[in-house]
Design brief:
about 375 residues, alpha/beta, 2 domains, 10 strands, elongated
Length: about 375
């Protein structure tokens, strides 16, 4: 199996055999073990009337294919599908659209007396029980599934464990998404977060590593009424949305610049980034350096960042910003914030990037 395919475990079988119950239990067991798993009940994505002339399979296949990239963007490591299918031709409706799926098709079966008991125990459409038995007997004469699990006398959790074992310890080890290094540059106003972060980003790219860069301030712009914890919540959610898409696109590290003033702020972000190996790098500058950089940005110097609130301020306002930045830097210093601390006074972005890359424990 190629590493970029998403494993799909499809549980099929006659009506009443327990596809949905077992599928949900497989989903629950995997997710409890830390595997980011998606679950789809085929009945729930083809509830329309009247059905098109082609029947239900083209509808389900089309809808599953439409949902598929969303699961990938959200970091799903595998998908469990519970849905009936009776022939190899019907399966091809799905595989023709899910070209990046690694399919394992598991047929659930049970002997007719127990199937009748289960079907009637559901309490609906009892007149269809004989058709369900006939379908089960017809399926027993097929061989299109990759494996068949007899569910007779087993509890739902036991069937789920049996399915995963018979499928070779599904999902395959190769499906486990590798951790993705995230290097987050923080620090006081004018500490150099954007400048140094972007320099590191360009060096990573020059080294041939697929990477992404995110300026948190640029993905959480919403006014009026968004400030403090609110803007962190918005930025965290937007970063999570970007994160899933970048991972699906094969990015191997992400460079972030933005405020990380408190440990709980960092935890809020990290909790939304499954599989992230996070390193917070705090850039520190003394009061004199901060004042120089604040003045430079006030004159329009520094990185060309949309909405730079320092640009165009008068001297008195810039002086107040610099004083507040110095207090912020001292508070971060006292708190010992960050995994790495880098002194920026009197140093070029290139020199700082060299130091950071040498100290980054998860450098790709």
């Amino acid at each position: 199996m190629s590493d970029d395919r998403l494993p799909l475990l499809w549980l099929c079988g006659p009506s009443g055999v327990g596809k949905s119950s077992v599928g949900w239990e497989v989903f629950a067991q995997l997710s409890r073990s830390g595997v980011r798993t998606a679950f789809v009940d085929g009945d729930q994505i083809a509830m329309l009337h009247p059905l098109p002339n082609g029947g239900t399979h083209p509808v389900r296949a089309r809808n599953l294919a439409a949902m598929w990239p969303n699961f990938r963007r959200e970091g799903a490591q595998c998908v469990v599908l519970a849905s009936y299918v009776n022939t190899a031709d019907e399966v091809r409706h799905y595989t023709g659209l899910l070209t990046d799926a690694a399919l394992t098709l598991c047929r659930l079966r049970v002997d007719p007396p127990e199937l009748k008991e289960r079907f009637l125990g559901r309490g609906w459409m009892p007149e269809m029980v004989e058709q369900a038995v006939a379908d089960a007997e017809a399926l027993d004469r097929t061989d299109f599934a990759d494996l068949c699990v007899d569910t007779g006398g087993l509890s739902v959790p036991e069937v789920a464990r049996t399915v995963l074992e018979r499928a070779g310890g599904w999902p395959p080890a190769a499906a486990a998404a590798p951790s993705v290094p995230v290097l987050w540059f923080s620090g006081a106003t004018a500490a150099g977060k954007s400048t140094v972060a972007y320099e590191v980003f360009t060096r990573v790219l020059r080294g041939g590593v697929p990477a992404a860069y995110v300026d948190l301030k640029q993905i959480g712009v919403l006014r009026p009424g968004t400030s403090g914890r609110d803007h962190h919540r918005l930025r965290a959610r937007n970063l999570a949305a970007l994160w899933a898409g970048y991972r699906a696109d094969g990015v191997r590290c992400v460079i972030v610049s933005g405020d990380a003033d408190r440990d709980d702020t960092v935890r809020d972000y990290a909790g939304l980034l499954p599989g992230a190996a996070l390193t917070v790098c705090r850039l520190h500058a003394g009061p004199g350096t901060l004042a120089e950089r604040v003045e430079l940005r006030g004159r329009g110097g520094g990185p060309a960042i949309p909405g730079d609130e320092l640009k165009g301020l008068d001297a008195a306002a810039l002086r107040r910003v610099a004083e507040e930045a110095a207090r912020e830097a001292e508070a971060l210093e006292q708190a010992g914030a960050g995994d790495l601390r880098v002194e920026t006074d009197g140093r070029t972005p290139g020199e700082l990037a060299d130091e950071v890359l040498a100290a980054w424990p998860h450098r790709p």
